[in-house]
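Entry 12.
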Amino acid sequence: METKSYNSLDDVRYNIDLIDRVIIQLISERSFFENEASRFKKSEAEVEAPQRVQEVIDKVRHVAVSKKLNPDIAEKVYRAMIGAFIELEKEALTKL
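Predicted 3D structure (tokens):
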């Protein structure tokens, strides 16, 4: 990660836009594996999997600290993302 100082808001926004493209690509890749995992789940309890969610949150918080990111931000982002994937999996489950 670059730690230089930027001279304009446009430069900062340009870099944020680049990062957003990478984030979306990674979420897309994660989505593929979420879909693969959902093939093995047969009930809402397996989809919700609160113990697994907590394991992921714990790992993410740890990584966030190591990357000098506020772990509360990382947790909120991941809880939102996980929640969205859970809703998609529940919808797919009801269509079976």
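Annotation: The chain has a mean pLDDT of 95. DSSP finds four helices and no strands in the chain.
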